[in-house]
Amino acid sequence: KMAARLMRIVNNGTKFAKWSSPKLRKGAWNVAVELRPPNITEMGKAVTEMQSVLKSASNGRLHNYTVRDAFRNAVVAVEIGCWFVVGEIIGRGSIVGYKIPGAFNNEAHVKPTMPPGYK
User: Mean per-residue pLDDT for 89-118?
Assistant: First the structure.
């Protein structure tokens, strides 16, 4: 009984490994491509594309964008904003505020005592 369960676990593990291997390879390739920093030619292309978006906005051709293009541009803008926030958090070393020596008076935040007879 125990040997049959063990064989079933091993067989399921083998099936899972065969099923997940191509997916993990594809995922690793996507991570390597998407998380690498842009090269010079990609930066130039991005600047040119941003200039064309701004020019079309000023010409009134912004209404000719498809929903897919507008959504893609919005997602890219949100991603840029999120990475900016992450960089700020890493740079200041905390989620809330900067730690400036002498700018915080701990004594001003001492819990006040209640007067005698106050309940």
Answer: 71
